[in-house]
Amino acid sequence: MAEVVDVLFINPGDRKQIYQDLGNDYAAIEPPVFAGLFATYIRGKGHSVAIYDAPAMSASAAKAARVATEDYAPKLIVIVCYGLQPSASTQNMTAAGDIARLIRDAGTEAKLMMTGTHPSALPELTMKEENIDFVCDLEGPVTILKTLQAINNKSNEFTVIPSLWSRDKDKIVAPLSAEPLLVDLDNEMAGIAWDLLPMEKYRAHNWHSFDDIHSRSPYAAIHTSLGCPYKCHFCCINSPFGKSNYRMWSPAVVVNEIDHLVENYGIKNLKFVDEMFVLNKNHVLGICDLLIERDYDVNIWAYARVDSVQDQFLDKLKSAGVNWLCLGIESGSDHVRDGADKIYGNDDIKNVVRRIQGAGINIIANYIFGLPDDSLERMQQTFDLAIELNCEFANFYSAMAYPGSPLYSDAIKFGLELPETWKDYSQHGYSSKPLNNQYCSSAEILGFRDKAFNLYFKHQPYLDLVQEKFGLDVVEHIKKLAAIPLKRQLLGD
User: Fold this and answer.
1) Cys staple from 104: which of 131, 196, 309, 327, with CB 3.0 to 4.6 Å?
2) Looking at the whole model, is its pTM more than 0.85?
3) d(Cα 383, Cα 389) in Å, to the nearest integer?
């Protein structure tokens, strides 16, 4: 007997397609935070909800569609297109589109909506490409609620709903107004609907658990804020919000959710999903002080910027259980980094890295190869800086023109070659295709990225650091990671 619900949220994705063999044991399996937040909001308005997390269940598009049409009887199905990191929405659109098509083929009476970073960046194109009824082009919860109310009222007055793209026969109808962003997060959307998720399925990133590599579960991820006040050229984080903005949950509500996770699910490994956690002094220190009072044995990681890390934060962060900070270093070239709206020098980066490490906090350093103005020489400068910094972990990315970013708008404007399918925006996928620039081809950028990854994780000073800090088990783990080949169509594999 199918479960009758008002709204079924689906988290789409295909770990094999996105990560190749890295998805088996190394990539994180992360709870769908936005689907969980939206479920909380809609349930708080008196409606019944469910969530199906396809990646966590290792479900194909066909399996996800069968669950949606056989296990549930929803009035509205919302496919929530986000990713494990802020720019990872687009790569999930191939799976999202497959799920929508198969649901429609099954003859469901439910209405289908897509929301998330990619649909909000390209709402009209998403309506043209996908077999769906609606796209929400901003944040989501208010639009989802009003769409459900219109369905319940059988009014079909969808064109007046803010931020809702709809259809009138064969015509795509744009919304007349924009959805207002939620202001009172504490009361409107206070946390994730954890009881609707398969909590036993989630696992932390491998590096997140270097202190205890065999205990990556249980794991959870939460927002303490939404949006980002910065405007990095390569970033699409603010697409669902329509502008750069920054809204926070209060420290008390954030820590109340952590209380729930620790007490009910035994959570130790925890990610703060915020694009920029280490930013607002009162917010950061307020959360830290409450966690220090509780003295939980938690292992937290969060995002920071080189120019947002203040000494007054570091001891508090460490005492609160923040053991990892992710820094977007991006490039070792001042020229390239300035073009990405990050105005600080290599000496500033080195100073901040050593201060963070001096406080006992580990660093995941993010680097991007192939940004505009990047050349082989400048990419080598970036890799040289990574080797010199020798952080506890490093992510090496190729520049991608993600929809919703200024980089994407520029690529369209100047007619640059973009990936053929949405899954080709995956950093680790077989058909991954970075954005070329005036100095380097897509193949040169991708080849440099893959070579840099292999060299970094086989570099003896790095392995020595890992052995000293985390032990031989983690060294062996890294060696196994580095031995997994990524096949690349662009490189002739």
Assistant:
1) 131
2) yes
3) 10
The ranges of the chain with pLDDT < 70 are 86-87, 230-232, 234, 236-238, 240-244, 338-343
Helices (H), 45-162: 61-66, 93-105, 117-121, 123-129, 141-152
Residue 477 region by backbone torsions, left for phi larger than 0, else alpha for psi between -120 and 50, else beta: alpha
* 393-398 sheet: strands from edge to edge: 219-222, 269-272, 299-304, 322-330, 362-369, 393-398
pLDDT of residue 87: 66
Tell me if 83 sits within 8 A of 89, measured CB to CB: yes
Separation between Cα atoms, residue 147 and residue 142, nearest integer Å: 9
The answer to whether the Cα torsion of 283, 289, 293, 298 is positive or negative is: positive
Residue 207: CB partners within 8 Å, gap ≥ 6? 324, 364, 392, 393
Terminal alpha carbon distance of the chain: 47
Give me the pLDDT at residue 86, please: 62
User: How far is Cα 339 from Cα 233, in angstroms, rounded to an integer?
Assistant: 8
* C-alpha span between 287 and 294 (Å, rounded): 11
All CATH 3.80.30.20 domain ranges of the chain, comma separated, are: 203-399+434-491
How confident is the model at residue 58, as a pLDDT? Answer: 94
User: SS3 for 221?
Assistant: strand
Tell me which residue of 285, 227, 205, 294 sits closest to 257, measured CA to CA.
294
Q: Which residue's structure tokens are 């400048």?
A: 378
Where in the chain is CATH 3.40.50.280? 3-173
Q: How far apart are CA 400 and CA 234, in angstroms?
A: 8
Model confidence pLDDT, tens digit, residues 121-175 = 999 999 999 999 999 998 899 999 999 999 999 887 899 999 999 999 889 999 9
pLDDT of residue 241: 65
CATH fit for domain 3-173, picks 2.40.290.10, 3.40.50.280, 1.20.1600.10, 3.30.1330.10: 3.40.50.280
Q: Give the pLDDT confidence score for residue 491 in this predicted structure.
A: 94
Cβ-proximal residues to 129 (8 Å cutoff; 6+ apart), any chain: 97
Q: Which fold has domain 203-399+434-491?
A: pyruvate-formate lyase- activating enzyme (3.80.30)
Q: How far is CA 14 from the centre of its chain?
A: 15
